[in-house]
Write a structure and sequence with these properties.
It is built from six helices and seven strands; from the N terminus they run βαββαβαββααβα. Strands 3-2-1-4-6-5-7 form a seven-stranded mixed sheet, sandwiched between helices. A hairpin with a 2-residue loop joins strand 5 and strand 6. The chain is globular.
Length: 206
């Protein structure tokens, strides 16, 4: 079974007044690099990183060897998350994957173990439309979507994520048992980013 990955890293960071991926958690570590490095350990083929047209890509970590990673420039990313999603889907469709894992670039504590759980659940249950993560009752990325859902995902508009799909009784999915809440911390604001930096520093000291 072939499972692709889409890493959404093209957001303009409007609430932060700057793109978030190059923000530093430490002198050596940039926010956007962390979850991407974890995804690269998960045998996603291909792994498409959706980026802005003006991104210098200096935040990208070195690619694994051999690597299935590629970048896809999204000229319409400023119009909303759904446009980045569409760019990523258009990039993976020619490879005809059976499913795709979608992750966002500002979740610093997502692990390869979590992504592997998404994949393993789907491989054991290929009739599912999606497999999602959950935090405090909310379905969260990263999430896996079967090939049957690609057209539905392409039909999203503006900044709408896939939450509406996962709340619909029309589709069959599984939501995994909660992981530690910090896995789902995201840098939605500068205050949130400050919390992530604190958590990151504590992890480094532990």
């Amino acid at each position: 079974m072939k499972i692709a990955g889409i890493y959404l890293a093209a957001g303009p960071g409007s609430r932060m007044r700057a793109p978030k991926v190059p923000f530093k958690l430490s002198p050596e570590v940039k926010l956007g690099s962390i979850a991407l490095s974890e995804l690269e350990r998960c045998s996603l083929d291909p792994l498409v990183v959706v980026v802005r047209a003006d991104d210098n890509l200096e935040w990208l970590p070195p690619a694994n060897e051999p690597s299935t990673r590629r970048t896809e420039t999204c000229l319409t990313a400023h119009l909303g998350l759904s446009f980045s999603m569409r760019c990523g889907l258009n990039a993976i469709l020619p490879m005809q994957p059976d499913a795709v894992v979608v992750a966002i670039s500002d979740q610093a504590f997502i692990t390869a173990s979590l992504v592997s759980r998404l994949k393993d659940t789907y491989v054991r249950n290929p009739g599912l439309d999606y497999v999602a993560s959950t935090n405090e009752g909310m379905n969260m990325p990263p999430a896996l979507f079967s090939r049957r859902m690609f057209t539905v995902l392409q039909g999203l508009d503006g900044d709408k994520g896939a939450a509406e799909i996962m709340h619909s009784s029309e589709y069959k999915g599984v939501v995994l048992e909660p992981d530690p809440a910090r896995l789902f911390m995201d840098a939605g604001s500068r205050f949130d980013f400050g919390d992530i930096r604190k958590e990151w520093s504590l992890r480094g000291e532990s």
